[in-house]
Amino acid sequence: MKKLVLVGLTLAVAAGMGFAKGQQASEKKGYTFGYTCMQLSNPFFTVLEKTIREKVEANGDKLITVDPAMDVAKQINQIEDLISQKIDAIFLNPVDWEGIRPALLALKNANIPIINFDAEVKDMDLVTAYAGSDNKNAGYVCGLDMVKRFPNGGPIAILDSPTMNSVRDRIDGFNQAIEGKGFTVVYQKDALGDLPTALRLTEDLLQSNPEVAAIMGGNDPTALGALAACKTANRTDILIYGVDGSPEAKAAIAQGGQFAGSGAQSPIAIGEESAALAYKILNKQPFDKRVPVKTFMITQDNVDQYGTTGWQ
Length: 312
Known about the structure:
Elements: H1 2-28, E1 32-36, H2 43-58, E2 62-66, H3 72-84, E3 89-92, H4 101-109, E4 114-117, E5 129-133, H5 135-149, E6 154-160, H6 165-178, E7 183-190, H7 195-208, E8 214-217, H8 220-232, E9 239-244, H9 247-254, E10 259-264, H10 267-282, E11 290-293, E12 296-299, H11 303-306
Parallel strand pairs: 1-2, 1-3, 3-4, 4-5, 5-11, 6-7, 6-8, 8-9, 9-10
Antiparallel strand pairs: 10-12
Helix pairs in contact: 2-10, 3-4, 5-6, 7-8
C-alpha cells in the first residue's frame, strides 16, 4: 500500500512539474509583430521602425518588417504573408488609404490586431487603434507662415499625394489656412511623396508657371526635391514648405532663405505610442482608440532648438 501511495505521489509531483514546466515555456513565448509602411526609403519611416523595433526587442519579442515601396498590391501580398507567419499584431501604415481594405479584412478574419500609424486608413472601423500626428495642423501651420510672408497672396504650387491620407490631411489644413488670403494655386500634382518625382515635377512647374512664388510639399522629401530643382534653375526667389521636420529639411531651413519651414512631427513619439498601444491590446489592458501626437512649425527662428542632426 505504501508503495502504491509513493508511486501515486511521484506521478502527481511529476505531473505538477510537467505542468509548471509547460506553464513556464508558455510564459516565455514571445510576441511576433509585423511592420509595414508606405516606403522605407523615407527616413521618417526608418526612424519610426527603429523606435518600434527597440521597444519590441527590449521585451524579448520579434518584429518582421516589410517594404512595399509605394505599391499597394505588394503591400497586400506582404501582409498576407505576414498572416501566414502567424503574427500576433501588426503596425500598419497604408500605401493607399482606400486600396488597403482587402488586407484589413484579411487581418480582421485572422483576429490580428491592427495598430494603424501615421496615416489613417479609410475604413477606421477595421483597425484596432491609431497613433499619428495631427496632420491637418502640420499643414495649417505651414499655411499660416506663408500668409505672414505673403500678406497680399500670390501664385503658388502644391505637390501633394492624394492616396496618402496623411498628405491629404496636411494639404486640407494648408488650404484652410490660406483660404481667402489672395493665393491662387496655379499648379498641383501628385509627387508620390518622394524626392525624385518632386524634382521632376518642379522642373515642369518652373517651365509652365515661372511666376510661382511658393511651393507647398506634402512631406519633406517632396519639399527637398522641389528645393533641388529650384536651385538648379537658379530660382532662389521661390519659398518652399514641407512637413515632417526631418534632419535634412532642418539643415536646409538652418541655412536660411529658400526653405521657409516644415510642419514638424516626431516619428520617435509615434513609434513609442504605437508600441505602447500594441502591448496594451495584446495584454488586454485599457487603451485609447486614437492617440494624437502634436505637430508644430519649425522655421529659421527656432530650428536651433531642435537641431539638424536627428529627429525630434
